[in-house]
């Protein structure tokens, strides 16, 4: 049985989709949760939902691409809960499968800023807290199967997720065993961001062993495992949760 009592988990992009499911799953396992998102109403709703179920959570409005905002997320977490045990860098944006030749500067830098620069900023800010205490801190980065192969996104998205996996490995190399860093590589997942891509998702997953796309809760379950002591010997890896997309 996975359990995370007395832990403090910070989850970005937690107002909806996989981030919301991660926040709720951590709370279900006994963690205090900091729900971080640029969507104030959505983040507040998730935190209230967790508290209504007997959990402990606060909503913090935070832009992961802004260093001052990231510092505020860390400061609010310390003020409220005293530490950070688990950091889930989940916030991300898509690029509509835009190839290099059609990608504008705005699209390119916007995707890289959220998907790669954001995890760097927040991880750097949270490092002192993650390194404190007798137990190892945990960083979980939401990457993608597009971080391992082409075809799961466009040029900017694929590049950002390849970079995030590299960042995860270097983080593990530089800070283990004080910090245990891993990435999750989802395939097609049904979330608000992908609601307009259901036909494309069904086509992409038709030839996978699972022959379906995932629900956010299935990704959250892997995040909970990676944060728990059950994953104590899992360091610097990128876990495929893709229904077998990459089996061939």
Report on this structure:
The chain has 248 residues and is of the alpha/beta class. It has a single domain, classed as NAD(P)-binding Rossmann-like Domain (Rossmann fold). It has seven helices and seven strands. It has helices at residues 17-28, 40-52, 67-81, 105-130, 155-175, 198-205, 216-227, and strands at residues 8-12, 32-37, 56-61, 86-89, 137-142, 179-186, 238-241. It has a seven-stranded parallel β-sheet with strand order 3-2-1-4-5-6-7, with helices on both faces. α5 (155-175) links the parallel β5 and β6. It is globular. It starts with 7 loop residues before the first strand and ends in a 7-residue tail after the last strand.
Structural class, judged by helices and strands?
A: alpha/beta
- Average per-residue pLDDT, rounded, comes to 94
Number of domains: 1
Strand adjacency order, main sheet: 3-2-1-4-5-6-7
At the first level of CATH, the class is: Alpha Beta
Number of helices: 7
Q: Which radius of gyration do the C-alpha atoms yield?
A: 17 Å
Helix fraction, binned, reads 40-55%
The dominant shape is globular
The end-to-end span amounts to: 32 Å
Order of helices and strands: EHEHEHEHEHEHHE
Largest sheet: 7 strands, parallel
The CATH superfamily bears the name NAD(P)-binding Rossmann-like Domain
- Uncertain runs are none
* SS strand fraction: 15-25%
What is the CATH fold-level name?
A: Rossmann fold
CATH architectural arrangement? 3-Layer(aba) Sandwich
Total beta strands? 7
EC number: 1.1.1.100
Protein name: 3-oxoacyl-[acyl-carrier protein] reductase
GO molecular function: 3-oxoacyl-[acyl-carrier-protein] reductase (NADPH) activity
InterPro entries: NAD(P)-bd_dom_sf, Sc_DH/Rdtase_CS, SDR_fam
